[in-house]
Amino acid sequence: MSEPVENRPVETGGQGPVELDRATVGNAMWRHLITLQWSWNYERMQALGYCYSMLPVINKVYRSRDERIAAIKRHLVFYNTNPQVGSPPIFGATVALEAQKQGQVVDSLKVALMGPLAGIGDTIQAILYRPIIAVFAASMALAGSMGGPLLMFLSGLLWTALMIPLFWLGYREGVGLASQVAEGGLVTRITDLATMMGMVVIGGFVPSIMAKVQTPLEFARRVTVQGKVTEQVVKIQSVLDQIVPYLIPVLLVAFAYWLLRGLKLSPVWVMVVLFVVGFGLSAIGVL
Amino acid sequence: MEGYSIWVAAALAVWAYIGIVLQLGPGLWWHEALVAGAVTGMIVGDLPLGLTIGATLTLMSLGLWTYGGATIPDFQTGAIIGTAIGALGGGMSAGLAVAIPTALLMTQMDVLGRAITTFFIHAADRYAEEGNERGLAWMHFLGQIPWGLTRAIPVFLAVWLGAGPIQSLIHSLPAWFTNGMTTTGRILPALGFALLLSQLPLRKYWPFLLVGFVLFAYLKMPVIGIAVVAVAVGFIVNMLQPRGQSNV
């Protein structure tokens, strides 16, 4: 990722590509990194943030006012992707292409890449990176440690820092980025690997996080010890633990999963059901 | 009736504003319930409560994601208001009882914030037409205001005016309620795990779940150890896969 890659010459049609100085590119990168979604809205989502971030480049590349206005309007069209993993390489590539006055290529590259990169970025972030960090951090916090929120904060910072190398990757690759994403072999392999790792960890998280979900139920039975009849109290939880430890947490997760996938309930309704279950089972003394 | 001063309410409103805007960019995780709850706990002087409420809400939200700009329960605002109200004496059951409905109701404010911001892109269109780049940049900066205020205003009002009345309302919680809330708080992570699992290829990869479960439940391995095993398992399976089918 870090070895220098040659900037591929692209046909310019005699319009004359512009050499961008490092400060201009850096300015655009930081604008994109910090503010991309500040004006996120339903109509065009990240469009205005993208346009604002591109302004330094547009001003360096286009001399006439009309050309600049045309370029600004091109970047005010609908745009939305994963902000941390998806957008930096796209933005980097389009900065390089704007400098070569490849406006049409820029527009089609944005449209072509924002969907696939949203998919990859959202998958990795939403079902692997964030949940695994969140469970670690939450279990630290439940144990009373300030390390939990600190871990959460640092992980977010690390995720944002990733935007810097991803931007430069896109900037160096230019149009080449599109073909790399389209091939997709490496991406599938990484997602697969991460999914397998994530599932092993989740398998351990369910019992560890929900270890306190235990039944206080017990029953008394009469046993005859050395001819004397005595009462012996048997805790149901310890009987369960001998058969399948953490059975109740596993059943609860399976139940919630079934509500979501089998009955197609929305998460809010599943939450309502869990409230009913929690209050009901605690009222009758089962949990 | 005990409540909070206007200054505590203002501080928490600012914290809510900063949290959501820095989530938009650069994407700091200050809006995460765990961070939002812990900082609120420090401001109102009950850090352990902030940690507990933040952690419980975070575990409920595993697998929730704003795909394509979708609205999900606002656990940031839930954690802030819930921690502030719980810290007045009701503790974890009062806090969660306030935090969860708040998180659900706040989805309406999220939709409102995302809709109002549309105004700014139309204004930006007009500035673009004139070639006024300063105007366009300002429309972009101001776009954060609907986002921030749709969190800050409810937090301010709920903490300043609401905390006292709500607290006296739930001052003497019956035992069945406290017990029910405690139990429910413990089982709510099941929702987070189920949401997460529903997005994973369970049919194809279910044995990996068993590996993690057995390591913890039977072999009593700490979760850090399980994470290390997970890395090893992932790479071993990757090595065993035939290479020909991908372009790597």
Descriptive notes:
The complex is a heterodimer of chains A (287) and B (248). Chain A is mainly alpha-helical and 287 residues long. Chain A folds into 2 domains: 22-208, no CATH class; 210-283, no CATH class. Chain A contains 12 helices and 2 strands, in the order αααααααααββααα. A two-stranded antiparallel ribbon of chain A has the order 1-2. In chain A, strand 1 (218-225) and strand 2 form a beta hairpin. The two termini of chain A are 52 Å apart. Residues 1-14 of chain A have low confidence and may be disordered. With 248 residues, chain B is an all-alpha fold. Chain B has 2 domains: 6-199, no CATH class; 201-248, no CATH class. Chain B has 11 helices and no strands. The model of chain B has no long low-confidence stretch (mean pLDDT 91). The chains are: A mainly alpha (287), B mainly alpha (248).
Structure at a glance:
The complex is a heterodimer of chains A (about 290) and B (about 250). Helix content of chain A is about 65%, strand content about 5%. Chain A contains 12 helices and 2 strands; from the N terminus they run H-H-H-H-H-H-H-H-H-E-E-H-H-H.
Helix count, DSSP H or I runs of 4 or more residues of chain B: 11
Helix/strand/pairing category of chain B = mainly alpha
Strand-residue proportion of chain B: under 5%
Ends of chain B: how far apart? 67 Å
Taken as a percent bin, the fraction of beta residues of chain A is 5-15%
Mind telling me the C-alpha Rg of chain B? Answer: 22 Å
- Helical fraction of chain B equals over 70%
Low-confidence runs of chain A: 1-14
Determine the most extensive contact between two protein chains: A-B, 110 and 108 residues
H/I helix tally of chain A: 12
Structural class of chain A: mainly alpha
